[in-house]
Design a protein that fits this description.
This protein has 519 residues and is α/β, with parallel strands linked by helices. The protein is 39% helix and 12% strand. The protein is built from 21 helices and 14 strands. The strands form four sheets. It has a five-stranded mixed beta sheet with strand order 6-8-11-10-9, sandwiched between helices. Strands 2-1-3-4 form a four-stranded parallel beta sheet, sandwiched between helices. Strands 12-13-14 form a three-stranded antiparallel beta sheet. Strand 13 and strand 14 form a beta hairpin. Helix 5 runs antiparallel to helix 6. The radius of gyration is 24 Å and the shape is globular. The protein starts with a helix and ends in a 13-residue tail after the last helix. The N terminus is likely disordered. It binds uridine 5'-triphosphate (UTP) and manganese (II) ion. The site of manganese (II) ion has 5 residues, from helix 15.
């Protein structure tokens, strides 16, 4: 492959020479793609028009990549038009891609292979680099896609929405990203001030907008929607009229918000500690060092790996973590299962950490395995930090405690860690010499088989979806749900479940798949 900017980039397009993608007919959603084609006048090029978005990619790199693609027989248009079938973006999240599409006149990301006349498919640069390496367009896989199926619909006056987020479907890539970003900034700011009630109001409003079947364009469309209070409506109105919220912009630029965000982003630092530091006049990590602030072991690790930990974890990192964790777990406990959960199970392409559940079909065999799993990883030099917590049993008495009705902390054997994860291309670190690894936050949670469905449901999130599921259980069904069990406090009985589906059935809720729990 030609040398050039492609080799030096970090981020989603990071691998210099992507491995050739195997031709699997089942993974291809387009019959027009020919796996055997490698000639210079390829058959595939006919129905395919690429457009590379300059934003975040840069003008010179865009020009370079466009030239590269044309040399390989791809049709690349310099201007965006309805003829474009494949839109390629770099360093762009699904929400940003959706916003870009909206700005192009309501175009939503296509779901299948882009076809002429239909909406284009929104793709991450990884699809492009894979295709360049293969010398042909590779089949679009989930990891390439920035767009999720979004049938855009007009929100009519008779539109209604159920009150609880766990009663609705919320895709990752929704129709109102600009509005929800403003509301979520205000929610975050309120949480950083310790005002949970106010934060929840903004989160609920944002969550309502995420579940809408189309873009909100008029304030009157909020009629009949749950949890859009006066303050949130004001923010939405300003966004609709002026395209910006003065309040959200003000927060983002404020000294307080920036410092609080920076401090709470340190692993092991909560709002209280951050607030204390702010009141002492500290603003940066440098200030922490200069004042010789005493840090816990966890916070020290957080500061040491700060740059890495604030860089989003990518799908390739998730795979790398899975490989080493799975190997260690199976060495310690043959027959164990490890399951990816958290945001990545919901289809997120970037995350702040990687969450795994570990279980064994024979209940009891899983108990106490984490110290050995961690020793195994440590012996390979892969552990940068770890803190293991023993299982403390979840009893009927504990389930009935008022604390467990609101508390999201569970009682599983669990390890909070920072692992050293290999990356194929050097240059991950933004400071210091280039290196071929990155520090990644990994949570390992061990669950007995009988509690696995509850743990899976509880750890898949989103956090707001979980909060709503527990509130719905309590208020509408008089049942207590947590990551261990579903409990009926009146009858003092547990409701067992063998799958997530069964838990939804117990609650009388329609099953919502993980990809639609992005509330
Ligand atoms: P995360 O905080 O990892 O969030 O919790 P996420 O959705 O994966 O997104 P990222 O990591 O920021 O990208 C995952 C889920 O696990 C639950 C939370 O409710 C969340 O829904 N969780 C987390 C617990 O139940 N207990 C905990 O101690 C932490
Ligand atoms: Mn996570």
């Amino acid at each position: 492959m030609a040398p050039g900017p492609l080799r030096r980039r970090k981020g989603p397009g990071g691998h210099a020479d992507p491995p050739p993608v195997p031709c699997s007919p089942s993974s291809s959603s387009s019959s027009s793609l020919s796996c055997s084609s490698s000639s210079s006048s390829p058959r595939w090029s006919s129905g395919l028009t690429l457009y590379l978005v300059e934003r975040r990619m840069g003008r010179s790199r865009r020009a370079f990549l466009s030239g590269l693609a044309r040399a390989k027989g791809f049709r690349v248009d310099d201007a965006y038009s309805p003829a474009v079938t494949h839109v390629v973006m770099e360093h762009t999240s699904a929400a940003q891609a959706a916003r870009w599409a909206q700005q192009q006149g309501g175009t939503q990301g296509g779901t299948q292979e882009g076809t002429q006349g239909g909406p284009p498919i929104l793709l991450d640069i990884t699809w492009f680099t894979d295709s360049m390496a293969a010398g042909r367009p590779v089949p679009v896989e989930g990891r390439h896609q920035l767009g999720v199926p979004l049938p855009s619909a007009e929100i009519g006056t008779d539109y209604s929405m159920p009150a609880y987020a766990c009663q609705r479907r919320t895709p990752l890539n929704h129709h109102n990203p600009r509005l929800t970003e403003a509301l979520e900034t205000l929610a975050e700011a309120a949480a950083l001030e310790g005002n949970e009630g106010r934060s929840l109001s903004f989160r609920r409003a944002a969550s309502t907008l995420k579940a809408l079947p189309g873009p909100l364009t008029r304030l009157s469309q909020l009629e009949g929607l749950p949890y859009c209070g006066a303050h949130s409506r004001g923010v939405i109105q300003e966004m609709l009229e002026d395209g910006a919220s003065r309040e959200a912009d003000g927060v983002r630029q404020s000294d307080r918000f920036r410092a609080m965000k920076l401090f709470t982003q340190i692993f092991g630092v909560g709002v209280k500690t951050a607030d204390g530091w702010y009141r002492e006049g500290l603003r940066t990590l440098g200030d922490l060092r200069e004042r010789g602030k005493k840090l816990t072991r966890m916070q020290e690790a957080g500061v040491r790996h700060y740059e890495d930990l604030k860089t989003p974890v990518e799908l390739s990192d998730v795979e790398a973590v899975r490989r080493v964790v799975e190997e260690a777990v199976l060495q310690v406990l043959p027959g164990a299962n490890i399951t990816l959960t958290g945001g990545f199970r919901r289809g997120k392409r970037h995350g702040h950490d990687v969450d795994f559940l570990i279980t064994h079909p024979e209940e009891g065999r899983e108990a106490g395995i984490l110290p050995n799993v961690m020793s195994c990883l440590e012996s390979q030099g892969l552990v940068l930090y770890q803190h293991t917590q023993e299982n403390h049993y979840c009893t009927p008495k504990a389930m009935a405690q008022p604390a467990s009705r609101t508390n999201t902390m569970d009682a599983f054997e669990r390890c909070f860690s920072i692992l050293r994860v290999s990356r194929p291309s050097p240059g991950v670190a933004s400071r210091g010499p280039p290196r071929d690894w990155k520090a990644v936050r990994v949570d390992l949670v061990v669950t007995p088989a009988s509690q696995f469905p509850f743990a899976l449901l509880g750890w898949t999130g989103s956090q707001h979806f979980e909060r709503e599921l527990r509130r719905f259980s309590r208020q509408e069904r008089k049942l207590i749900l947590n990551s261990h069990a579903l409990y009926n406090p009146e009858k003092k009985t547990f409701l067992p479940a063998a799958s997530e589906e069964e838990i939804f059935r117990h609650l009388g809720l329609e099953f919502i798949p993980p990809e639609e729990r992005n509330a």
